[in-house]
Amino acid sequence: MNWETKITKLLDIRYPIIQGGLAHLAYADLAAAVSNAGGLGQVTAMSLKNPELLKEELRKTKAMTKHPFAVNFAIGSHDRPFIPYVEAALEEGMSIATITGGNPKPVFDALEGTGVKIIVLVAAVRQAQKAEELGADAVIVVGQEGGGHLGRDDLGTMVLVPRVVDAVNIPVVASGGIGDGRGLMAALSLGAEGVEMGTRFIAVKECVGANDVYKQSLIDATERDTVVIKRSLGAPARALSNHWTDKILEMEKQQMGYEGLKDYISGYSNKKYIHEGNKDEGYAWAGQVAGLIQDIPTVSELFDKMIGEADQIRKKWQQ
Predict the structure, then answer these.
(1) For a designed S-S bond to 232, which of 61, 129, 131, 252 qualifies (C-beta 3.0 to 4.6 A apart)?
(2) How far apart are CA 202 and CA 29, in angstroms?
(3) pLDDT at position 177, please?
(4) pLDDT at position 78, please?
């Protein structure tokens, strides 16, 4: 069946499926596998220690796929300058950039006149409208079901996506709670032109940075086994529930602030779990879609299953 949408045409991809930015995990192996399977893979820029390492990762990705992939700039959660990373990606021929968190305008300014397509992740109607005003080619809309950092309004994907679709004239990609062909078809029926998946792409063989303990935790989790931390800091984010997140939530109740929380919510604590598999000394991002994850396929197998499910739904709708 034909899977052409505005987003597949914009990005020159076969299927309207985008891999999330996935801090500390979205590197060449995963990005190339997603792009080779027909979606849009992404390499996370700001998880790398310096722009030179980003260049190396982009070269590695280009050696593994001839298809388009994006570079994700998570600009809201890092103290170091992000423009040098943008410039490094440009030097390596970046054609698609996605922006997460923070004020995206400096990235737009840095990319002006380059021809790079820009997609901004948003969690509110006004944010989507602002991205369009700045010149975004598309927006990714994340509902509160999603993993990692979310919007402050607790708006679900089912309501937020059509609200944004009605509010902007650029393509909208749905994110949050999507992990199979049913989610893809639901998003398209809401007016989205495609989907972004984060948590589902952690539990695949090519996500080599994710420890087996992390992947198994996603399989074992139900839709009730995540919690939202960092609300007290104005930066809510969804993670797998464990003793570490219990500590964080208790400290937030005690209004300990960033200084009290920083060691618990740091990237180091995140990597203790996701890279080393140490559940007792860290936390791991995950969306409620963990309740739908039952296996660890290859990316290609995941795409085959998703598109097969979606095709069956299409046929059913046509009866």
Answers:
(1) 252
(2) 12
(3) 97
(4) 64
How would you write the chain as a 3-class SS string?
CCCCCHHHHHHCCCCCEEECCCCCCCCHHHHHHHHHCCCEEEEECCCCCCHHHHHHHHHHHHHHCCCCEEEEEECCCCCCCCHHHHHHHHHCCCCEEEEECCCCHHHHHHHCCCCCEEEEEECCHHHHHHHHHHCCCEEEEECCCCCEECCCCCCCHHHHHHHHHHHCCCCEEEECCCCCHHHHHHHHHCCCCEEEECHHHCCCCCCCCCCHHHHHHHHHCCCCCEEEECHHHCCCEEEECCHHHHHHHHHHHCCCHHHHHCCCCCHHHHHHHHCCCCHHHCCCECCHHHHHCCCCCCHHHHHHHHHHHHHHHHHHHHC
pLDDT in tens, 271-310: 999 999 999 999 999 999 999 999 999 999 999 999 999 9
**C-alpha to C-alpha distance for 73 and 166, rounded to whole angstroms:** 27
Q: How many residues does the chain have?
A: 319
| Amino acid at residue number 135 | G
